[in-house]
Design a protein that fits this description.
Layout (H helix, E strand, L loop, with lengths): L8 H19 L2 H9 L17 H9 L11 H6 L3 H8 L4 H6 L5 H4 L7 H20 L6 H23 L3 H16 L3 E5 L4 E4 L4 E4 L5 E5 L2 E9 L7 H18 L4 E6 L6 H9 L6 E4 H11 L6
Parallel strand pairs: 5-6, 6-7
Antiparallel strand pairs: 1-2, 2-3, 3-4, 4-5
Helix pairs in contact: 1-9, 1-10, 3-8, 5-8, 5-9
């Protein structure tokens, strides 16, 4: 009997990590921000190169290749006008959020879109990043436009790796929460996002809260309607303990509202026969249960990514 790759722990780990990285691409709005910057009429901006930290040689290399300077060099007005634009140029310079903080130019709040820099801060950030970008351009004899995408990709990958390592066992939980958020945004259901992305207000009046025990819950007029509990870990040794904790959390939801929909998500690779029996015996507590693998496969199929 041939073992399917999805039944192997190493494949599940790889799939989860790849999906996590792919999710960050959308969570950080890298494509929409890049498209918004590309749509800017850079010729309408005042480019005082020396004040903006742009070397003449780097500027000329960009111009001679027919590349729009605004897609390469940071301008204060762009940082102010486009929420999240700071991340585009920071990644282009291949420096981290942490290193920006160390030089006295914290950018995290600007990159999440919670606020935009005021003009003095925007000028400082633009000048600092342009100095680095100019040096990188000056080291190349000839500039290839595709190289700029690779620079941003390298920085984004490093940042995603840091997020992955910091998650420490919460990968599945963060992944499923991200999938739910993205689906709600894609469907146009979200009317407001508050409390550092931990709470969404939907257009039909429902509230979606992202926390712990349960990991995700849906409310309408203070009445809980649905709860999602995610239990990660691909080892089968502690699966019964994880399921027990999930059932306690979801049973509390049922106590608040006996008609609430309760959903459990876990890794297929960790599911034992005993765990399957326990799930069937607790159908009164758990309305539906899914595996992480099923949800990822469905998401890939929905986006046309299967077989890519």
């Amino acid at each position: 009997m041939i073992e399917h790759p999805e039944d192997r722990p190493w494949f599940v780990d790889q799939l989860t990590k790849s999906a996590f990285f792919h999710q960050k691409l959308h969570e950080w709005k890298m494509l929409p921000i890049a498209e918004a910057i590309e749509a800017i009429r850079g010729e309408d901006l005042s480019w005082e190169k020396q004040e903006l930290g742009i070397t003449e040689s780097a500027w000329n290399k960009v111009i001679h290749r027919g590349i729009k300077p605004v897609t390469v060099f940071a301008h204060p007005q762009v940082l102010i006008q486009i929420r999240g634009a700071t991340s585009y140029y920071r990644m282009l310079s291949m420096v981290s959020q942490k290193s920006m903080g160390r030089v006295g130019l914290p950018v995290t709040s600007y990159e999440t879109g919670s606020c935009v820099p005021e003009e003095p801060a925007a000028k400082q950030i633009a000048c600092h990043l342009n100095l680095i970008i100019s040096r990188l351009i000056d080291t190349d004899v000839q500039i290839n436009p595709r190289e700029f995408d690779l620079w941003r990709g390298m920085a984004a990958g490093t940042q995603a790796q840091g997020s992955w390592q910091n998650a420490k066992g919460q990968h599945a939980e963060l992944l499923i929460k991200g999938l739910i958020k993205r689906r709600l945004f894609d469907a146009g259901w979200v009317s407001r996002e508050t409390e550092e992305d931990q709470r969404l207000e939907l257009s039909d009046g429902r509230i979606v809260s992202f926390g712990s025990e349960p990991d995700v819950d849906f409310y309408k007029r203070q009445n809980i309607q649905a709860a999602v509990e995610v239990k990660g870990g691909i080892d089968s040794a502690g699966v019964l303990e994880r399921l027990g904790a999930a059932m306690k959390s979801l049973s509390r939801t049922r106590e608040k509202n006996p008609t609430a929909v309760t959903i459990l998500v876990f890794f297929k690779a960790s599911l034992t026969e005993k765990a399957k029996q326990d799930l069937e015996l607790n159908r009164k507590i758990i309305t539906h249960w899914f595996t992480v693998e099923e949800l990822l496969n469905y998401e890939f199929d929905r986006q046309g990514l299967s077989g890519a």
